[in-house]
Amino acid sequence: MRRGIALLCACAALGAAALLERGARARRPAMQSGMERQRIDALPPAVQLASTLLGSFRALLVDYLWIRAEALQNEGRFFAAAEAARWITMLQSRVEGSWSFQAWNLGVNVPSSLPPEERWPYVRAAMELLWRDGLAANPRSLGLHWEIAWFWEYRIGGDVDAAGPRYRAEVERAGREILGAEPWDPVELAAAEALLPALRRDPAVARFTDTLAALGVRDVEGEWTALWAAPEAAFGDVAEALAAALREDPLLGAYDRALRARAWARTFGVGMDVVAKTHGRFGDVGMLRPESFVLFWAQHGLEQLAPDAVRLDAIALWRMQLRALARLFRSGRTALLAAIDREYAEAVARVAEDPYHRRQQALFEEDRIRFLKDAVPLAYISGSRRGRELAEEHFATLAELDPAGTPRVACEDYVYDWIFRWVNAERATKDELLAVSRAFLREALRASARGEADGARSYLAFARELYDEAAAAFGGPAFPRFDDVAAQARRELAPAREGRPEGRAG
Fold first, then answer.
1. Distance (Å, whole) CA 230 – CA 239
2. Which among 266, 336, 395, 474 would be 20 to 30 A from 50, CA to CA?
3. Mutual orientation of helices 45-54 and 58-74 as an angle, nearest 10°?
4. What is the Cα–Cα distance from 421 to 418, expressed in whole angstroms?
């Protein structure tokens, strides 16, 4: 009985609030009312309904829900806290913190209470909440872009969650189904997506989609990528003929790329045009690595920033962008060195010209020097002629930026001194240890070609020691044999001979 009375009172209060709100809206100036209507119409229907019904009582309810959600979170009742946070975002959709709070509960707290194999749906839902609903209400928010990039950098790409490898496998699986066979060209995919309305009107495309519909496909465009992931299961005996038509007809091929680009945006939230711009700006940053998605979302967020503007939320995105680029570089994408150094230089210049954020200049300069100190040796030992050229170019830059901290030696001497110090620090990954091992194998080959038997034996012994260290730490069935590593070093040495004379400086 008491619950019934309370419910009636609540309904009466809501009705009165709605009437009061309607009266208040009627007394507002016409322009302000129209702008408010535009803002509300842009929100999801559930948010519009809650905002209209509660009226003046909304602020009181939001305060209560914030207190309740934080208490539930502190008690470890994460599912209940997530539900309270969902209501907060419905009622306070313009406040970025409410979306961050809900996404954190959904994508961090809730998964932490579950077995690793059950976590991915919640992490994915947290990111979708941010880009589908949070950015729908706050499209120019750099903070929400940073939140999405954070999930990609730390939750999916980092090692803070034991389920991280599962997350990355799910992204890889979904991405490959969408993109189809390699190679993937984001520029072509973005261009095809822009032509999609015209492609739909083409007679050849219309005949092709009619054929698929006749074969029982209910939603040709919606099911497109799943159909072509397993065409034999979907189309039976005619699968090969249909696939051949896609390969051979340029218009059908463009239609295929357009629908894959559209599916990419639906699945990952960021358009293929942003992916293409990111590749155009930095070079090949991959498509399905967590660091790639950090760059895509940072690019999308920074596009919302006014030209030449400098803000703390933009600085946070620049830093996240630079960290992602550095991780890609360390994973073997040596060609990114020039782009990363350019980004550091531009960041330094931007903050130096802004009176409110000028103190950030020294921090970016320190980060740039720290990056170059490690990047120069890694590029040098990468095994490619271009990597060595980049190393030598940027060693000169490093000497200009940090003359007191950079020894006055040749680049090659700096590199080998760094290798000894760095390996002893015991912080190398498998790929890095193997790269250094190959570098010393190349030096052994050079010394042997010069007739320096003692030097060749020393380099070979050190290469073997590094290989054994890597095998002990990371060995397994897929770990390369030492002979295979030596063969790769020989292949890498061949193009280097086209450059400057071999051997160390002096």
1. 9
2. 266
3. 120
4. 5
